[in-house]
Sequence to fold (517 residues):
Amino acid sequence: MKKSLLIFFATLKINFLFSQTLSVDFSSTDTVANMSGFLFGMNATDPPDSLILPFKSGYWRGSDWVTYNRATSSTIGAKYIVVVSDGYGYPPNWIPPYSDTTGYKTYIDNLCTQSSGFPMIYDIWNEPDLTTFWGGTQAQFFDVFKLAHDRIRQNLGYNVKISGPTLSNYDTTYIRAFCNFCLANNIQLDVLSLHWCWNYRPDTLSQCLIWCRSNIVNNPIYAPLQIKKIIVNEVGGSWAQYRPGLTLANYYNLEKGKADGACRACWLSEDGSTDNCWNNTLDGLLTPVSFNKRANWWAMKSYAELDSIRYTVNSSNPYVYSMTGNLRSSPNTIRSVIGYYQGVINLQPVTPFLPVNLTITLNNLNLLDNFSSTDSISVTFYEIPNIEFSPLSQPNYLGQYTLANNTSSITLPLVPLDTNAVIYADIVSKGSITTGLNNPTLKNNIAFYPNPANTTLFISGIDNSKEVKIEIYNPAGQILYNSNNKISVDISLLKTGTYFLKIRQGNESYIQKFIKK
Fold:
């Protein structure tokens, strides 16, 4: 009997220690910037656009015209950050710019001539706090920065954007000294930039950004610098590059610290044979050559599909976080992306954490439009496991639940969460799927058949003079298919079950349920 009681209390203690809570308050919101961005990571054709477009990249950092042309194309639409120092060179095979100011001025002038009329941010020097990239003193770097700034302004004017100091790490003393130098030398620093590439705890990233905004950007003393943005143009240490939970922890803290943008850092591949900057894998999100999706590709996609609104989240575990918002492509769907990261201290991993059981509570959901208290909600869970550099064909389906939305607080079923893994929950009101979407004109004109269908749905009655968008949703409100084909829809890859076909023309829409045999 005594032994049984000991086992019971031990089990109770373990469950208490590793059962965690996370609550989302839908009555409280914040607005964040898009943190998706890359450093090199592609060439003119690889990887295919279909593997890049889901990220809606805000910034792309590089130093060549191939990257510039593709990144800033209407297809990808990123803003370009050019690493000015890449084209000049670094130690030991360089002529120090402070030793040959005439030659350096000529280099900057030529760059300005080549880039005139092409929008970009001029990132003057990469990581001048490291001997790998800078062989002189801090004072010499400041002088070279001023020289480059003055030549760019003289050639291109004050409307082009310049960033700095682009340190390898968070160093408040260095940042303040740099900004004081800029202030004393009439430098217009449009973007305060830095890197977060070492394997430190992600929560210190938000602390760094809060310090920069409070002490520099919003400090009236530095107002003459005209700093408009803080961009972390390399984020993520080598230990994070394949771990979904740790990767998205950095993005959570970028948002928490109110960064204005970021670019994913790149490192050597897992076997050291290639550099993920140059093998066209989106900085390691894909496997080399074959471009198979890794777990981190799916994690980044699940995050990038969120819009700019975040609902307030509280977590009982400092290593468990969530970014919760509406989907860009389906505003009636709320997604909660939840990660659990294993921290690092002094560049070394801490003792591995145990998995947690997570209780998620949704508060005030019924206050939102399209989430009426008279309708139930559907919640679908997916897992992105921490399988590091192995391919992952798709997230793991964990289950779908239907719950009443008639109270101010809804508790979801217990969810297991592993170390450095990510789960996400897509939440949709069942009423928003089936009601309030049909336009009478479209409903009267459009027909589709057969229903049930096996491989193809045929559509008739669409006005060919107007653009059309065809979408298929599952009962959870997730988009499974979209096309501009006005005649037929291929449903051969759908599993047997019930789906919703939505047809949009201009401001009109029509939705109807169908069955896949």
